[in-house]
Amino acid sequence: MRMACSQKSTGVCFVKLRSDKDRGDGTARYVLSGEGAGIIFRIDEKSGDLHATQRLDREEKASYTLQAQAFNKITGLPLEPATEFIVKIHDINDNEPKFTKAVYTASVPEMSDVGTFVIEVNATDADDATYGNSAKLVYSILQGQPYFSVEPETGIVRIALSNMDREVRKEYQVIIQAKDMAGQMGGLSGTTMVNVTLTDVNDSPPRFAYSSYHLSTYESAEIGSTVGRIKANDGDEGENAEMKYRIVDGDGKEYLDIITDEITQEGVIVVKKKLDYESKRVYTVKVEVTNTHQDPNFTVLGPFLDTAIIKVTAKDVDEPPVFSRPQFVFEVNEDTPKGIAIGTITAWDPDATHYPIQYAIDQHTDPERLYHIDPKNGSITIIKSLDREVSKWHNISVLASEMNNPHQRSRVPVLIKVLDVNDNAPEFAMIYETFVCENVRAGQLIQTISAIDTDDPLVGHKFVFSLSSMNPNFTIFDNEDNTARILTRRSGFNRREMSVYYLPVVISDSDYPIQSSTSTLTIRVCSCDATGNMRSCSVDALLLSAGLSTGALVAILLCVLILLMIVVLFSALKKQRRKEPLIISKEDIRDNVVSYNDEGGGEEDTQAFDIGTLRHPEVVESNQLRRDIIPEMLFPYHRPSPMKECADVRDFIISRLQENDTDPSAPPYDSLATYAYEGNGSIAESLSSLESSATEGDHEYDYLSNWGPQFKKLADMYISKDTGVAN
Prior knowledge:
By secondary structure, the chain is mainly beta. Helices cover 10% and strands 33% of the residues. It is a single-pass type I membrane protein.
């Protein structure tokens, strides 16, 4: 049998078991088994009463399955089969509602209508929903009124106030309560927080902070340079706050422009056209700002644009002179005399001061100094003769500067076109190589000529060809197309009698004044075949007139060839002769004889040869000086002997020894090479001039008198020479 009792009861009998076999004499013993037997539940062995030993919690376990059986204490045998029964725990309201999240986050567009869904919150109750009202929940709002409301049964949060403006308040905290027992008194409750953020909509039009703005810039500001920045205020954010600026009106609309900075949403005022302080001091424009992204649901809130007046003041700058034209073009005849004016350059000071202007030609553009400009009135004159055939155009630059401030300077290009004058005579178009055959007939064409003229007449060239005088051999025929034909007047030319004819041709043009020149046409007499093809001309004719036959010419060429072979052979033998041994005798072939045209020091003069020249044998010949005359330049300084150390001589001798050992032309026997070496013990040292300088110092030579009678004549000669020079 089963009996229910309160789930929170502990130690209270809620089931009494009684076996039919129990006679009440105390011989029956009850045993309990199953879920929680001996731990949560226990049974009285004598009476069969079932007790709970712990507090029961339905939310942890709602029912238990147990088995009870009666045994005979004496025999230990079961009195009857085991009986299974279920203990079911009845629910009481001991759990408060709990929300699924401690904090909810929600967002809703600003200006939403009343009843707009915001978020749905959910709470759960661990009590038994099928038993009583312990798990029946009711939602209510504790904080967040009057802006939001919550549906009691569903927990849906909605907008409760219209026209909620994000620009006024952006975030809200709403506290929602869930209470069981259907919200009745004594029910348990739980709460949660909902953070609601109003998202932006484009409900705020841009507005300028001021109706007018004042800016300033220098009149010299470059096109595209920034004058200033303005910005309209927009309470929205993101793309709803993006704005665009434009100029809609104003007298400065032609000179100023506005650009939208997409990063800062500022309007940047820039120079569109050069400002001029002297013509206009203040430039006014009307600027309009609008939202680039507009929401049609909020157009009723007013026009989403605003306007403001921008006044830009131009500040004065000392400007350079301004020319009347961006460039000047003048024309002048090439025969215009010097000193004639060809045109005038005009410029002025654009500043209010109107300082006078001075002009000059940039000499880098007129390197030949052909022109001059008056520094005051800007008149350009010619100072050298012009020649169109040398240059048809002259491009110069004229500089204009303020007299009080030369640094303020402007430049203008001046193009001067040199007009043609017929001052050049026509001449042959090319160098003609004309010949006439010996067997030519009278009236036969031998050459067609044409002409060129460096002039450039307007109607084109028209040349006239003629002969300077009557010629018995040739005549000319003008084709009237700037060409002419040269014809023979007779037949039977003989190159032995005349090998070359010179025909003067007069060429005239048709321009004014008429120019003409005489060009000479050289005509050679040649031998031709029957068809008129040239075979040989003047050189062969001259050789034949000298009586030289073909055999004689061949003999001359053979003689020349033999002479060339002899010269080559002689040069080869001479080179081979140079390969002889270095020393062919015991005498030193490099000994020098020095003659001073007077008696020397005799045998004691051991310094006649300076062995120092052996240090550079390759320049001995180029550095040798004559010693058979009195030296014109003396070197009074006492230089040390070049052979104080013998290392150079030793290296030289070793080098020569190696050359002789490796020379294939050297004799196959030992040879002796002697090299003289002058000592360094002489008090006079060396008298050699091999290493003398090229200049003469101012020194005295009295010390030569102290060297003994051997140097008396030499001392008298130099001392007397020094005295004569001093006088």
